[in-house]
């Protein structure tokens, strides 16, 4: 990737927001999980990562991501470039991974990928940081209970007493100054 100078304005705000959300310890946990699932190691030790740039450099070619989704879903075959050198094949690998992850049922991120894999009772071992996803648990109430709810007037509806628009003027309307008839 190219080196860019400092960002300004909206770009800088977005960069600060992304930097604030990044937690290095969590990223290292996810990278370690990827190594454990795939059975392969990254180009350098993940515990030596010091920033989000180091983490993105490990994942930017998309090869380990494609191997990960193939291990999580053995029926999923992802076509990917095994040794990409240029930016376009790297982006294509990541695009193929994202498409496979979407078919797997994941939309947001690698942590969620681990959670969905655990939910599907995958044959792989999952670490303690993987969040268990909620299962559907529909409730069935008897008709009598449903009717009792209709008899109560909920307080959430609020009231319109004492509500008026007195003193309010439309946005952008100039102040109406009228001569005082008494003075």
TrEMBL record:
Q: Where is the signal peptide?
A: none
Q: InterPro entries under this entry?
A: Calponin-like, Calponin_repeat, CH_dom, CH_dom_sf, SM22_calponin
**Record GO terms (molecular function):** actin filament binding
State one Pfam family annotation.
Calponin
Q: Name one GO cellular component term.
A: actin cytoskeleton
**A GO BP entry:** actin filament organization
Spell out the family assignment given in the record's similarity comment. Belongs to the calponin family.
Q: What is this protein's name?
A: Transgelin
**What species was this sequence derived from?**
Caenorhabditis remanei
């Amino acid at each position: 990737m190219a080196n860019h100078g400092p960002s300004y304005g909206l770009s800088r705000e977005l960069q600060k927001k992304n930097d604030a959300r990044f937690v290095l310890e969590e990223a290292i946990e996810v990278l370690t999980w990827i190594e454990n699932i795939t059975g392969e190691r990254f180009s350098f030790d993940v515990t030596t990562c010091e920033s989000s740039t180091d983490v993105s450099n490990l994942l930017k070619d998309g090869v380990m991501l494609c191997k990960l989704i193939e291990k999580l879903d053995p029926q999923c075959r992802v076509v990917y470039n095994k040794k990409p050198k240029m930016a376009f094949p790297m982006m294509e690998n990541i695009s193929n991974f994202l498409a496979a992850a979407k078919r797997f049922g994941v939309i947001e991120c690698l942590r969620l990928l681990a959670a969905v894999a655990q939910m599907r009772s995958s044959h792989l071992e999952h670490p303690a940081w993987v969040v268990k996803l909620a299962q559907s648990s529909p409730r069935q109430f008897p008709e009598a209970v449903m009717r009792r709810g209709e008899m109560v007037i909920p307080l959430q509806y609020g009231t319109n007493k004492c509500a008026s628009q007195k003193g309010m003027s439309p946005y952008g309307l100039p102040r109406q100054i009228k001569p005082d008839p008494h003075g």
